[in-house]
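Below is a typical protein record.
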Amino acid sequence: MKSIFFIEGQEHIRFIEDYIYIAKKLNHKISIYSFEKLKFKDTSISLHLKIVKKENLRIILKSLKSDYFFTTTPGVGSFYFPKSKNVKKYIYIFHSLFSPNEVYIKNSFLNFDIIFSPNEIIAKQLEFLISDRSKNFITGYPVLNHYKKESEKNKDIILIAPSWGKNSLLTDLVFLNDLIKKLRTNFEDKKIIIRPHPMQLKLIESNQIIDNHMIKIDFDKNLNYLKNISLLITDWSGISLEYYSIEQGNIIFVDTPKKKRRNMKVKEKNYDLIENKIRNIIGIVISKNTDFSKLNFNAKSISEIDKKYLNDIFSPEFEINKIEKIIESLVNK
């Protein structure tokens, strides 16, 4: 058996490395393609890495030959991400716990043969987004196990982690400056880190945000310090659910327009989209002119219904042996 993994960049490693480990365990011949040099926990995996230039990607993808093609990049089968006639199964692995219905572009999942959904909610919401021939397996979300293994130090970090897009917090430097001033006034003993979304690294590099506020810009695409965060501030980033799953810590959602990359069909309208519903369950939503000194950061009281909903988002647990059996079962399908 041969398995190919396409990994855009280092930020996707924590979502897919366990699957590479499983393929290795099953004695698959492994090839890994990426736009950049990658660092793996298992350093031997790097031997399978091939760096490609974006301008050559279409040609390379169309020439591949493999039993399985794993990726966290949606949109396979599009002009920019074509399929090869010599790849038997294209497999999508989620890199977010948000609903797939609005935040991904049209046909993001349509041409995959297999979807590995992190939970039953997302698997159900994919119903109208995948083809009839697609197989949808509920696998759990490997990232949650990844964070549990990380060490915990002092909870002395305030993390500002925006999503990407035209309404990202990073596009409003006036607000961002004001936000940092407020944080400095109300949390003098905390370190402040801004973590740009990987899609907007160049934006923050070009703007050279606020050196005089003694903040750190985190350009590292790994995210290994969630256990050391005392307060997370975001707009619509999926990091919010990952942080809550391991810490149940304080989260502030800044009320910015949601990035919608696709209009839902009428038959999808009855879905409660995860990214909309969780904002007032796991955190507080504020406007850009909120007075931080009046915010209440005491632990929120969560209803039993909401507890069950959160449990459904984080279930099932990702288990290596279970996924191994799923991949083995694909041979005869």
Q: What stands out?
A: The chain has a mean pLDDT of 90.
